[in-house]
């Protein structure tokens, strides 16, 4: 009897540290420019956009996809324009706050309709697409693990960002934006991975079970809604 290969960790599959770190640099630059220039939103916005352009150019030169760089730069420009329009430095972080509200609702809804987004993301990354839904044990595990993302990542960010934004704590928002980027993502991946693998029975081969079994069937598992 051949032994099964060890299960892959969720951190190995998802990665993403570089993108999370990159996303926290322009907000930090905004706060720094805002402080140095005597709380000038215009200077903070200019510094943030300048840093985003330099960072984007570096990433393109390193071979990153230009579309992802453009989207990141557009988000920084939009945040800067909002702060300039309202005259409130804390509004530079408003898009980040609203995006986390939307993410929390979207992830929660995906679990309710039995299409947990963690499964969708991992399935795309490892090339399984949506075939993982044929395995009821994987579906249940992805659903439980997705709740970790709803509460530990997105809801926590909403509470922290929302309270700091409401009270106008610009410097604290910049710090929170950094702390709640890659460090929080790393914790979320670790905890959701633990939940996922402890939900699966010990004999379950892991995330690639559909491919390893070679099941060509397109039928859904018993008890699952057909879509």
Automatic annotation (TrEMBL):
<feature type="transmembrane region" description="Helical">
    <location>
        <begin position="147"/>
        <end position="167"/>
    </location>
</feature>
<feature type="transmembrane region" description="Helical">
    <location>
        <begin position="179"/>
        <end position="197"/>
    </location>
</feature>
<feature type="transmembrane region" description="Helical">
    <location>
        <begin position="105"/>
        <end position="126"/>
    </location>
</feature>
<protein>
    <recommendedName>
        <fullName>DUF3159 domain-containing protein</fullName>
    </recommendedName>
</protein>
<keyword id="KW-0472">Membrane</keyword>
<dbReference type="InterPro" id="IPR016566">
    <property type="entry name" value="UCP010219"/>
</dbReference>
<dbReference type="Pfam" id="PF11361">
    <property type="entry name" value="DUF3159"/>
</dbReference>
<keyword id="KW-1133">Transmembrane helix</keyword>
<feature type="region of interest" description="Disordered">
    <location>
        <begin position="207"/>
        <end position="227"/>
    </location>
</feature>
<feature type="compositionally biased region" description="Acidic residues">
    <location>
        <begin position="212"/>
        <end position="221"/>
    </location>
</feature>
<feature type="transmembrane region" description="Helical">
    <location>
        <begin position="68"/>
        <end position="85"/>
    </location>
</feature>
<feature type="transmembrane region" description="Helical">
    <location>
        <begin position="43"/>
        <end position="61"/>
    </location>
</feature>
<keyword id="KW-0812">Transmembrane</keyword>
